[in-house]
Amino acid sequence: MAEGSVGGETLLFLTDEQLRKGIEAMFFAYRGFTADPDRILERMDYGRAHHRALHFIHRSPGTTVNNLLSILGVTKQSLNRVLRSLIDDGLVESRVGRKDRRERHLFLTEKGAELERELSDAQRARMRAAYRAAGPAAVQGFRTVLEAMMDPEMRRHYQSMKESGS
Amino acid sequence: MAEGSVGGETLLFLTDEQLRKGIEAMFFAYRGFTADPDRILERMDYGRAHHRALHFIHRSPGTTVNNLLSILGVTKQSLNRVLRSLIDDGLVESRVGRKDRRERHLFLTEKGAELERELSDAQRARMRAAYRAAGPAAVQGFRTVLEAMMDPEMRRHYQSMKESGS
DNA sequence: ATTTTATGTCAGCCTTGTTGACTTTCCAAG
DNA sequence: CTTGGAAAGTCAACAAGGCTGACATAAAAT
Prior knowledge:
The structure is a homodimer. The first copy, chain A, is α+β, with helices and mostly antiparallel strands. The first copy, chain A, has seven helices and five strands; from the N terminus they run ββααβααββααα. Helices cover 65% and strands 12% of the residues of chain A. Chains A, B: One of its GO terms (biological process) is response to stress.
């Protein structure tokens, strides 16, 4: 396969062809990764941007707009458009900060939590199936490579909740 | 960690929390995955869609528009717009099919191959660094999980060139 | 009192998806 | 041979969701 042994250590032959396969794997897999939520979102009048907002508000209830901006890596105008519709539709609640009243703290309403659940159930189902099919060792490797692929700032966001639920 | 042993077999505890980490890993890693090519594309007046077209024409020289459509999963109108600019700019050559003159066979010109190389060099550099950091076993697992996550049709496209260069 | 920070909003632009309508080409059934 | 349908490509128009720039407001910090 793609490995060889030298002095007891296993090495990878990182040919361009090997790397190209990794690149295409990312491309095709990401399509699958978003496919199920996308189908649900289409029924409402929402898009992937709404899903991302719901996801991270769910993950960190009470997060501020600014914090969300740095996680999502978009402009405030872009996020605001999405947030506006979610708030107007009663899926997200925006509360003025008590300590710093310039800040807005974001929470899912019951209705928002419901949609978030539906979306992440669909996404988790696929992830669970892939994990089961691949096995525990593969899952470990999957997470390790993905983490190594992140930009440092994104890795911080990722790790900041690393083992919070395990 | 996230594993346990029962009768010599290792099992995964697929808690929602574990799965959520996988989901976020995909999200953050994909951002890193596209970041370097995106920076290059910005300098030209191209976007990610152009990169994808160049990539798959490079991979399969002479491919038809229809074949490209099924790989990329967009409408022909959407692809056509991108293809048009690449052809007009002299990066892609479109040859009328000899057997079926409705078909167009696509090839990279020297100029197109050059840009493709620059883009994939950048993307491969990050992939190579991640592979090196994670190690061979992790790489194997990475590819296995990603493949399990694909839609069946995409998996076919992926596997169709599986070991062509290894 | 002034400046900085956090947020929101308006306007306008670009990329890249979409659908619908149309042409050209090919092929096959009559 | 003709005709009708399927396949490939093109043009036009629209929408989502990125972007920048400008500006308003409120609150915190200096």
